[in-house]
């Protein structure tokens, strides 16, 4: 078999993901410093609890704005960090908001109660009745508490995604209520024209990012590209490929390894969006997805008619060659996780080894395509079949197949159980973390 070599990857001082992550941390730290400055400039209340409560509220407001930025689906961040990591950070930021706003309410209530004759409960009621914006803040906190409760792991496992998503959308109402409370009752907000301008800018940027990334950009791209189905091809009894074309697809910023949220605009499915990876590298003329038809939504893909309009949000994901650090690559796929790997194999240069793990030969989707493509590119293709135990991708087995695994970039996509096992294997074989690329195709509400 011929081996195709590419020029060595030029050394990169800082990787794209590191640049983006460091930039986000720097922005958050800088804004925290600005918030602290304006807080101290406004002066302190005589009551320590009130001081702590106000500061906790300001940090909670800043975290709210930061959380909106994380889920705005801005292309620059998404391509460098990945939606799965942004979603995880969104989740932990949400719990930070929960605790800071709860601290804000408790400290403020007890602080005012300390200087009055009221107990904390009646003090809170009095503040809600007499101070403009406090009642709205109480409602916002209640929404945050409910969203935090349903987002906890034990509750999330028991709720349908649609139910969780519907409840989660109320977070936007909490943001509006919290901002209106800050405008009405925030002493730091009104302490100086500079402080007021700063907070308006923070909220405008956060809400503007959401509007651009989640509404305006998808609408503009779909108006520009006008996607339509050109072919529906069954690949097996449970897998189907859908081909699409449109206008100016050579200007669509999609890359192999990325995914879209696809809506097929039929009478009964226009409202349903599902994430599917591209199963072929974009060529400027057509797009292709390949999906396993396991539920009602995916099963309906087999019956999509040629000519159906498609609304596609994306492309999303950092599972691309942008993050390569080495000239040679190992691709490891399990089941229908082969779809982004098929696209990556088409785009990659240098010597590539592709390991495809399935239960039986019949489960090897797109295998004929993979074999032809591997032959054309001088890549190695290994089809591994059989039961999960014993592990056929254990350290010894993987080292035998790919002796130089520690000197390659490794792209991994498959079922969670397999992904976890292979990650442990790669760590045991000494593959550096920066050379391992995997992504969970998950979306934050």
UniProtKB/TrEMBL annotation:
**In which organism is this protein found?**
Streptomyces luteolifulvus
Location of the FAD-binding FR-type domain? 222-322
Annotated membrane topology is: Multi-pass membrane protein
Q: Which CDD domains match?
A: FNR_like_3 (cd06198)
Q: Which UniProt keywords apply?
A: 2Fe-2S, FAD, Flavoprotein, Iron, Iron-sulfur, Membrane, Metal-binding, Oxidoreductase, Transmembrane, Transmembrane helix
Membrane-traversing stretches:
24-45, 51-71, 92-113, 133-155, 167-185, 197-217
Q: Does the keyword Transcription apply?
A: no
Report the protein name in the record.
Oxidoreductase
């Amino acid at each position: 078999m011929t081996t195709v070599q590419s020029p060595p990857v030029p050394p990169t001082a800082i990787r794209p993901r590191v640049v983006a992550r460091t930039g986000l941390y720097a922005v958050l730290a800088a804004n925290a410093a600005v918030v602290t400055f304006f807080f101290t400039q406004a002066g302190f209340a005589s009551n320590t609890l009130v001081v702590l409560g106000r500061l906790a509220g300001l940090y909670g407001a800043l975290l709210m704005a930061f959380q909106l930025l994380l889920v705005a689906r801005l292309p620059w961040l998404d391509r460098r960090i990945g939606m799965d990591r942004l979603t995880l950070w969104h989740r932990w930021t949400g719990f930070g908001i929960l605790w800071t706003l709860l601290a804000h309410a408790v400290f403020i209530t007890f602080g005012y109660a300390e200087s009055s004759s009221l107990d904390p409960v009646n003090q809170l009621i009095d503040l809600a009745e007499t101070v403009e914006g406090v009642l709205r803040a109480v409602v916002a906190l209640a929404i945050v508490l409910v969203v935090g409760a349903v987002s906890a792991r034990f509750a999330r496992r028991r709720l349908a995604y649609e139910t969780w998503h519907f409840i989660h959308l109320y977070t936007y109402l909490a943001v509006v209520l919290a901002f209106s409370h800050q405008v009405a009752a925030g002493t730091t907000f009104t302490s100086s024209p500079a402080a007021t301008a700063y907070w308006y800018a923070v909220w405008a940027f956060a809400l503007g990012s959401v509007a651009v990334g989640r509404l305006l950009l998808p609408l503009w791209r779909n108006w520009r590209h006008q996607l339509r189905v050109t072919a529906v091809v069954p690949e097996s009894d449970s897998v189907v490929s859908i081909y699409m074309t449109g206008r100016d697809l050579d200007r669509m910023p999609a890359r192999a390894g990325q995914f879209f949220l696809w809506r097929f605009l039929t009478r009964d499915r226009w409202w349903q969006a599902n994430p599917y990876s591209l199963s072929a590298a974009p060529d400027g003329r057509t797009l292709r997805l390949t999906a396993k038809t396991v539920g009602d939504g995916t099963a309906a893909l087999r019956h999509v008619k040629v000519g159906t309009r498609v609304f596609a949000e994306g492309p999303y994901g950092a599972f691309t060659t942008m993050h390569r650090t080495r000239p040679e690559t190992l691709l490891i796929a399990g089941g229908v996780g082969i779809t982004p790997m098929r696209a990556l194999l088409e785009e990659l240069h240098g010597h590539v080894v592709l390991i495809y793990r399935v239960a039986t030969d019949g489960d090897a989707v797109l295998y004929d395509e993979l074999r032809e493509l591997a032959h054309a590119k001088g890549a190695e293709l290994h089809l591994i079949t059989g039961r999960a135990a014993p592990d056929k991708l254990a350290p010894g087995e993987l080292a035998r197949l790919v002796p130089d695994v520690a000197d390659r970039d490794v792209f991994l996509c498959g079922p969670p159980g397999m992904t976890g096992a292979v990650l442990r294997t790669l760590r045991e074989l000494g593959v550096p973390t920066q050379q391992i690329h995997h992504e969970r195709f998950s979306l934050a509400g």
